[in-house]
Amino acid sequence: MLWNATRDSSFTLIGCFTRIPKKVKKMFMMSWWIVCILSSFLGFTNLSAFTQTTAGPCPEEYVLGPNGSCYWFYHDVNDTNWWYYSRGACQNRGSDLLIIDSQEELDYILNQTQTLAPDQTWWIGYYDVSVEGTWRWVDCSDTSDWQSTLWVSGEPAIRKDCGILLGGTGQLSSEICDEKFNFICEVSPKDFTIADTNARNVKAVAINETAIRVTWDVSPYNCDVFGYRVHYQQYREPSNAGFVQVYEGSANETILSPLYATNAMWQIYVAGMQIEKELEKVGPAEVWFGPCPEWHIPGPNGTCYWFYHDVNDTNWWYYSRGACQDRGSDLLIIDSQEELDYILNQTQILAPGQTWWIGYYDVSVEGTWRWVDCSDTSDWQSTLWVSGEPAIRKDCGILLGGTGQLSSEICDEKFNFICEVSPKDFTLADTNARNVKAVAINETAIRVTWDVSPYNCDVFGYRVHYQQYQEPSNAGFVQVYKGSANETILSPLYATNVMWQIYVAGMQIEEELDKVGPAEVWLGPCPEWHLPGPNGSCYWFYHDVNDTNWWYYSRGACQNRGSDLLIIDSQEELDYILNQTQILAPDQTWWIGYYDVSVEGTWRWVDCSDTSDWQSTLWVSGEPAIGKDCGILLGATGQLSSEICDEKFNFICEVSPKDFTEEDTKPTNVAAVAMTPFSVKVTWDVSADNCDVIGYRVHYFKTSDKNQKGSQTVYEGNANNTLLSSLETNTEYSIGVAVINLNEELEQVGPVLVTTPWGCPDGYEEGPERSCFAFLNFTRPWGVARQYCQDVANGDLAIIDSQPELEFVQRRMQEVNPGQMWWIGYDDISVEGDWRWLDCQPTAEWQLPLWPSDEPRFATKDCGYIRESESAVEIRSANCGENKYILCEITDKGFVPEDGNARNVRASPLTPASFEVKWDGSPTSCDVIGYSIFYSKETSPSEEELETVYGGEARDAQIEVAMVSQDTVYLVSVAGLNWLGVLSRIGPVRVTLTPESDNREYFSLTGDSGAITSPGWPTSYENNKDITWTITVTKPGRVLLTIVSIRLDPSGDYLTVGSGATSGVNELGRYTGHKENVGTLESQFNQMWLRFITDSTITAQGFSVTFEKLDDGPVEDCGRAFTDLPSGTITSPNFLDSKPYPNNAACVWTISLLDKMALVELSFTTFDLERDQDFLVIGSGLTVNENILQWLTGQHDSRTVMSPTHEMWLHFISDESQSGQGFRAMFTSKAGEPPTTPVYKATDSVLFVVFNQNVGWFDAVNQVQLASTIAEVLNRYNVAGQTETRQQGDFDASDVVFVSFYNVDSDLHIVTWVRDATWADPKAPLNPDTVIAAVTSESEYFQTSMGESFEYKLQRAVTPEPSAAPSGLEDWVIAVIAVGALLMLVLVGLGVFGCGKSSQDKQSAKKDERTRGGNEHDDFRPTSFGSDGTWNPAFHPVVDDTEPEDDEEPPAVTVL
């Protein structure tokens, strides 16, 4: 017989098949049948050559079903069994309980069951043992849509965890697993092993000194896992051990608490629990308990020490130090006798008389002994040496435990060691070389110098790398020993007329540090890129048809290398030039140093020499043309032509020394003469060396007020005068004249002083005490009359504030138009009955008799006029809309309309449908006729509403809104109204309205510490609760709240916390969901409120918090650290009190989110700072002044800043004068990708070269200063006014982007991109020429703002040359790789279906899995800001969607 195997030798391939997908297995079964049939025909009756069994395709007692499946229908009404026993019977035979995959299979099963045991009930492989309510099959597959239709109506039931098949109907039902039924087994291979069902990636973190949070990843194959057992034991103390059990297969964390052993290592394991057994323990995850790092114990003064003592396991010095550093410490630094006594006491207890490595060495510089924090040896420490020590070439220090003395030893000796937590104030990068420079000392040698770090104690030398530019194969390095070395000479370097790139890297024992550089130096007799020509001249022929440039850029490229554009002096030189150009770029066109930029039509060379007769013969016929100001050489003919300077060509440079300096181009003999009371004529003499001069800028300011500066620009280099108009009378002015050349504005020549005579403007006449009046002999309403008067600077309706003025006005009214009524600047528009002049002064005693007895009148007669009545003058009131004659006066009131606005706005809740708004008035509010209150819900700011109260004396308003059903925050702003319109909004401030609650409860807690939990904690709280707690600690302390646990239903239950005693005000945070150890909150004063609200649906465990007193007193909220919080609120100092922030503030906030994979989103609801004087700088990470994202100033309605990591810092800086309302911002945790890195083109940028400064100088403060200065310069220059089509826009510091900054030699280069604020597009660049022109125009203001020590030059940024992409692999290489990959794929496929893994392999796999442990999901944080100061534009708000080009792979360097 073909199948004659016994039960004991049952079909062993089944064990193999359990690793094969079900469809593949069925295909194999069908193939097996074909083999069997063929074997019968061929006479084979024994298949032992193919397998070890002869049992057939199915195990004994199993029947073959459809699609090759094998089934066992166990049916015995006298021997039914519960579910787990039934499953075990299946598993003992290499199968499992039935999985019903299709209607076809179900039909087959029902046919068999009706034949064998009609209408019986059968156990099948379906259950929710792992997670209640989640039904899965025994292969861990989920319920399909079709399978879910098989349930009996109303099924499955709760707590009935095992599935049955009703044979009579083919439906499924749930049952208690201990019931007894027949069962059906099926050979259903699984694609996982029992080990695959276990917990994974076990991690443990200490959350305080007695509790550990344990987390693990849940397997997708956890259908048999009903919970987990978490084991813990103290390292090397196995008796101190235990475990806790966590139920549900989806559980992934627990907290072990309390664990009282401190300064100890705990080992944590997690094991899945199945019905019949506990799986293997996964771990250990190790966590150290205690205030010190792992293995360290507390010592005196809060220091932590680790005494490693094992005579059988001593180590050399470097290994010992590494062991310390791996645990966050370093070798011991002995700072005092007290510390030494403690150390000796400990060493005598642990290992008497032993020798110990300590953190003392002279590795960097022989004979200079320093500690591992790079501190020098103190006088006291030097007394600890054994006599005759230290010895030469013994570079590492030891402590003799028996005597407490120090000695030196060879670092490779082996001793015990002592570690200490001794924080260093420097990083690894700080130890490296700095400020690398290179200078050619002859044609084959380069001197390289660098600055040595003061933190170089670990640096034993430097490696100086060199390579030829664009020839990376010509490279090498030299090593210089001693950490104090700061120079070397590279010689010989035989390649001449080439550029060399030099880098320096510090060398430490274990690694070479990052290379610092490059410093670039040219070797050869001529400047960089120049070649020798005839008569000893040097020329550079720049030729690249893909990178041509405009004239100014080309000239700058020459000047940057010590030359200038070509001057053609002779036919001999011209012949040489043409010969070279024909060789390099035949028939091309070349820029040369010939132009008429200074004076149209006057062509001169760049050395200011005039055109010679011979040179004039070189012009192409009909040239030069008007409006084409730059000269070109036609390479094909040798002739000259003119072109627009913005065209792009190749160019030729020449070293051509000039016999004049930039100083010689300035004007001389500057003079100024007053022409009228309002104008001054300024004259000067023009320099003969003015070929680069395109015009002059005349600067002026009042000597009495140097901040009010003006300027006027005159174009053409031969201009020699201008007229300054619209000046003030009787005023001394300081005047200077500055040259504007092609690159910049030079320093002013002057100043000269001139005083304008006193006088009135046109249309005005002189009154008493040098006053100016205008009698406009036509009538208008009062408001229109004011506008007519205000057409002149400081003009308004007349304020009659003296008896002489009154007499003058009376006389002139008679002369101009007798008997008429004249509007004056007197009204009670702001406050009815409170008559004030337009300078807000009240009525003087001597002015009262001017009112007739029946005046002033109330109601609608609010505006004053003056007239004659029976030879006397009287003031009367009238309706402001009446037409009267107009009396104007020039008066400096001393304030502007905005000064009369509301101040100190605040809002507080009244009822669930109303709130009160209050504000302070201004002493200069006499023009204010009322106030508008703007309010909207914080969640829908676009749905804003408005309410207006009239009367300048109004100071509050009550706002009615719709009744709220839940806590609702309103944003409220106030704006004054004057006769012209609405002033700026002040605000917004926040007010929270709370719904009425019949069951609202209030509790007060008084004391300096305590705890609060939700009712029912930790079991369950009730629905529809509204509870408020108020905490009060003794003054002058503050409340520190620690949120231990939040376990709330996120759909409608939440806990809100705020500062103060009034709930809904000064909210600090709002919490819901499930979180542990959320963090801490601090109140501003000695009170804090908590409000807990639940809805009518789902409940949870609740919350637990503790509080204690902080003894530092009330704070102005000037900075704090937000650690491990999901959200929070940041406000400027005094903001919560509705007061302006203080002057001279410097506050820092840091944010570190609880979710380390999230991003910080910072959203401002209020922002009001003094523009360009007070700043908020925002950056990524926790190190202030690095990774700057934005700086903000002025006023913003709303703004959002996103950090590319889970950390953010804010730095608030205010100056010594003026302030604003401040700011309020909310930070939240945001999932998503970091902001897109924008692209800033070099062609759209300018380059500031700051002389004698380095990257370290350019910190956040100086960045803000430069950015705000550039913005103000652009506003002064009136960029919008330079164009015809753009609308006026204001620049601020946030429009300025510092794309990169780096050192070149001793100078700082800052590549700067400016957004065009006159366009709505946030990515539109401002033309670099406009930036240069603006800074040049406002150079005096620019220099004053940046300081006299800020020496700079400004030019267009250089466009980087595109690098050629690396060539691809050869085709045959790609083909070989492809074939190899295909073969690997085949081998991997065979491995997947392989069956013969030995038990040793399985154990090895388990060991590998344990070894991987917690490294599978290590956090990744993007870097942002290089240690060399290079800016990453991803941290700036302007986002460009353009995709950057891929960077070229760095070339390989061959070491010579």
From TrEMBL:
Residue numbers spanned by region Disordered: 1397-1456
Keyword Secreted (UniProt): no
Protein name listed in UniProt: Uncharacterized protein
TM annotation in the entry: 1372-1396
Stored SMART domains: CLECT (SM00034), CUB (SM00042), FN3 (SM00060)
Comp. bias intervals (Acidic residues): 1440-1450
Native source organism of the sequence: Patiria miniata
Annotated C-type lectin domain residues: 66-186, 300-420, 534-654, 768-889
InterPro entries: C-type_lectin-like, C-type_lectin-like/link_sf, C-type_lectin/snaclec_domain, CTDL_fold, CUB_dom, FN3_dom, FN3_sf, Ig-like_fold
